[in-house]
Design a protein that fits this description.
Blueprint: H1 2-12, H2 20-27, H3 40-43, E1 53-55, H4 59-64, E2 74-76, E3 80-82, E4 85-87
Amino acid sequence: MYAALVELKRKYGMDTYIDNTCSDYLSEMFTPETVELPVLSDVFCNYNAINFEPYNKHLKHLLSEEQYKKGRTIFFFPPKTLGGSEIMGGYK
């Protein structure tokens, strides 16, 4: 997931962020200066108030459809529930 977010930032100029869990995971394997994406809670003080839209479609829709190009805050592949358990990065 991190690699996809970095590519969206580099190639398409999208503002992308990671959460604390992702940051903690990456910091176990990489030095802080090599992690390119900022942590959402470090950038926005009240990020829980942001009205994120869930996004579960194929990546090609995000890149090709004009509706996703501006003014959207997207929760990229939000968790899903399966049998009462949350699955991170749920994808249709």
